Structure prediction request, 83 residues.
Amino acid sequence: MLNAKWPVFNFEKRIWTIPAERMKARKEHVVPLSNSAMALLERQHDYTGGRPVDYGHGIIGAIILLFMAGAMYLADRLERRRR
Prediction:
C-alpha cells in the first residue's frame, strides 16, 4: 500500500487494483479487501479528506506499514472468532 493513490481502491466493490506498472510481472493485480482492511481504509480516507497519504520512505515507512499490517491481521482474526 506504500504510495498507493485513492483511485486504486474501489470501496463499493471492496477491491484494491494494483496497476500493471507497479507490479513486477507488469500485470494488473486485483486484491479483495477484508472487513478490517475496509474499515482501516475508510477511516484513513475520512481522516485525510481523500488527499494522498505519504507514509514516508525507507525504514520509517516500512515500520509504519508493518504495524498497520499487524493491526489489520489481528482485527481480522478477532472478527473471524466472533462469527
